[in-house]
Amino acid sequence: MAKYHDIYEDLKGKIEEKEYGAGTYLPSENELMKLYDSSRDTVRKALNLLASSGYIQKEKRKGSLVLDVGLISFPVSGLTSFKELERSAYRYHSKTIVSSFEYGHPNARIQKKLNVGPESFVYEIKRIRKIDGEKIILDEDYINAKIIPGLDAQIASDSIYEYIENTLGLPIAFARKEITVVKASEEEKKLLDLEGYDLLVCVKSYNFLEDATLFCYTVSKHRPDKFRFVEFSRREK
């Protein structure tokens, strides 16, 4: 493993254990170079990874500000399954509850979203994500059954992405996402532990295989106080 990744993991661990508390600054680049006996480029790669993962905010002429890791960092640009997010955020205890699992012909709205006809078959899966004892994410997945055959509730309770890539051998490549804030419905208030919140962060995602085949449309709704949606952007001239 590259050395910058080792530095990233060490610093990430210290932030999670609050050795570097939220609102404080990490040691300077020069201090980190001495601490890890590494080049400036290696240290900067580690810091960039921390920033893109939502652990720090790099501030010009000030350094690397440690962010509140009580919030779960959810990558905007990445295409990460909940199980993969759980593994990366190992400080959380999580569980997936399959609320409903249906197989049949899609309605007009889903036909349009998946670009399929009324005679096609689609899996409609509703999953509740429970983290540290609280139900804070509601996922609705609409999956083209012709492209992704053989799904069942057991697979849905574990990892659909793992099934697609490891069992079916279909590489997942990219997604197009849209993020909005929406009012929680009465059903969502019953399904989730909203603790008085009536707004949800809604992430709509069109998911594609490596050959650019659209296989899934997902609507994922998150309790707003529990997540930080992170992105690493580079200015291009």
From TrEMBL:
<dbReference type="InterPro" id="IPR036388">
    <property type="entry name" value="WH-like_DNA-bd_sf"/>
</dbReference>
<keyword id="KW-0805">Transcription regulation</keyword>
<feature type="domain" description="HTH gntR-type">
    <location>
        <begin position="1"/>
        <end position="69"/>
    </location>
</feature>
<dbReference type="GO" id="GO:0045892">
    <property type="term" value="P:negative regulation of DNA-templated transcription"/>
</dbReference>
<dbReference type="Pfam" id="PF07702">
    <property type="entry name" value="UTRA"/>
</dbReference>
<keyword id="KW-0804">Transcription</keyword>
<dbReference type="InterPro" id="IPR000524">
    <property type="entry name" value="Tscrpt_reg_HTH_GntR"/>
</dbReference>
<dbReference type="InterPro" id="IPR050679">
    <property type="entry name" value="Bact_HTH_transcr_reg"/>
</dbReference>
<dbReference type="InterPro" id="IPR012770">
    <property type="entry name" value="TreR"/>
</dbReference>
<keyword id="KW-0678">Repressor</keyword>
<keyword id="KW-0238">DNA-binding</keyword>
<dbReference type="InterPro" id="IPR036390">
    <property type="entry name" value="WH_DNA-bd_sf"/>
</dbReference>
<dbReference type="InterPro" id="IPR011663">
    <property type="entry name" value="UTRA"/>
</dbReference>
<dbReference type="InterPro" id="IPR028978">
    <property type="entry name" value="Chorismate_lyase_/UTRA_dom_sf"/>
</dbReference>
<dbReference type="Pfam" id="PF00392">
    <property type="entry name" value="GntR"/>
</dbReference>
<protein>
    <recommendedName>
        <fullName>Trehalose operon repressor</fullName>
    </recommendedName>
</protein>
<dbReference type="GO" id="GO:0003700">
    <property type="term" value="F:DNA-binding transcription factor activity"/>
</dbReference>
<dbReference type="GO" id="GO:0003677">
    <property type="term" value="F:DNA binding"/>
</dbReference>
